[in-house]
TrEMBL record:
It comes from Cephalotus follicularis (Albany pitcher plant). It comes from the Eukaryota. This is UBN2 domain-containing protein. Coiled coil: none annotated. Residues 101-138 are annotated as: Disordered.
Length: 138
């Protein structure tokens, strides 16, 4: 069961294997394209860092997207230096990071409130003598 565009694409193929190969190249690309995608995703993974105004949840979504894309291309990329991360489930890691983020935010909010309490506003005042004004008028 194929839609007409797909049927037209594979109707000239003699075997199911040829049809499969043609559809695979159409949607996944050639081996060179796959290798290039894998290399690009591995580089993204290796250079991955949290953006300046990003929260933990947003960062985690980006990391998950990279990992899922690599897995869909049959490439499981692991960081050999971070063996301990493999023993910690991703959900627990996310929870720990979100808790840490909230703690830091609360600490920053407390510091901001303390700074607001410490601010003192002073106004500069001056007095004008009425005799000076009279002499200017004359």
């Amino acid at each position: 069961a194929l839609i007409s565009n797909e049927f037209n694409r594979v109707s000239s193929c003699a075997t199911a294997k040829e049809m499969w190969d043609r559809l695979e190249v159409t949607y996944e690309g050639t081996n060179q394209v796959k290798d290039d995608k894998i290399n690009m995703l591995v580089r993204e993974y290796e250079m991955f860092s949290m953006k300046e105004n990003e929260n933990i949840s947003g960062m985690f979504v980006q990391l998950t997207n990279i990992i899922n894309s690599l897995q869909s291309l049959n490439k499981c990329y692991t960081n050999k230096e971070a063996k301990d991360l493999n023993t910690l489930p991703l959900e627990e890691l996310l929870g720990s990071l979100m808790t840490h983020e909230m703690t830091i935010k609360n600490h920053e909010d407390d510091e901001e409130q303390d700074n607001k309490k410490k601010k003192v506003i002073a106004f500069k005042s001056s007095t004008a003598d009425s005799r000076d004004e009279d002499s200017d008028d004359e």
